[in-house]
Amino acid sequence: MCTFLVAPYTVFPLAAGIPIGFLSSVGVPAIFQAFALVIVGAITGMSIVGFFANRANSMTYGPYSQSIGTRVRRYLHLAINYISAFLFMIPVYCQLPSQQESVNHTLNVLPCLPEQIWSHPNYFLVSTNNLFFSW
Asked: Is 108 among the domain residues?
């Protein structure tokens, strides 16, 4: 369903692309489409983790043997994880480069990119700096 609504045509090795899904033809801005696509992935991952955590607790302690304090801690943990799944990409989307800066950076990195890609009105570039986070 999400690939029908938001289908990004990505440009590698940059975090760039053009949205070509149904929402793009309706006129939804690319920033909202990208945000929705990332949020769907984060919520899916959080749901899988929550399912396995609940399953592990039920198998260890039994489905009805949890105290009120344990349930409150578990629900608080899930609530914090779901809230962070919605909010973790906001700093990235608040620092998006302008359209002209995106095109300039793209052409510096990929000078042979066809014009119909970087001149598209919905072309987006998520970041112009290359930061790699590691432990």
From this structure: yes
Per the structure, the count of domains in the chain is 1
At 133 the pLDDT is 57
The reply to whether 132 falls in a domain is no
pTM: 0.69
- The answer to whether position 72 is within a domain reads yes
Residue 108 near residue 13, CB atoms below 8 Å: no
With 0-12 CB in 10 A as exposed, 13-18 as middle and 19+ as buried, what is 62? exposed
Distance CA 103, CA 11 (A): 12
Token pair recorded at residue 65: 């043997």
Which stretches of the chain are DSSP H helices? 2-5, 22-26, 30-61, 68-87, 90-94, 99-109, 115-118
The reply to whether 100 falls in a domain is yes
Residue 111, token pair as written in the block: 């000078």
